[in-house]
Amino acid sequence: MDNIKEFIRKRADYVLSNYLLPHIGKIKRQKAFFIGYMVGRLLNSYLGKTGEDDRDHYGKKRLDMCGALLTSLFRDKFKEFKRRGKE
């Protein structure tokens, strides 16, 4: 019976470390703080203290304009061109 409980505890620890919020890392304390932060934001929104946040809204996306994109593309290709000339 103790082996089963130990297996379940180790398996739960493994799942929480590797599958719950994998982008935060394997440190459980950081995950606990992040979950607390998310719950706090949810409660503040529910109580009307803050508004809802729509992170998928198009206006909140970062966009590079075509001039900046062409500049970076030209810079990269020109560096590549200069490197090939030296070979």
Could you characterize what this model shows?
The chain is mostly helical and 87 residues long. The protein has one domain (2-86). It contains 3 helices and no strands. The longest helix has 21 residues, at 66-86. It is flat, with a radius of gyration of 24 Å.
Computed structural class: mainly alpha
In the residues, how many domains can be counted?
Answer: 1
- pLDDT < 50 stretches: none
* Helix and strand pattern: HHH
Short structural summary:
The chain is mainly α and about 90 residues long. The chain contains three helices and no strands.
List keywords for this structure.
87 residues, mainly alpha, 66% helix
Mind sketching the topology for me?
Layout: H1 2-18, H2 28-46, H3 66-86
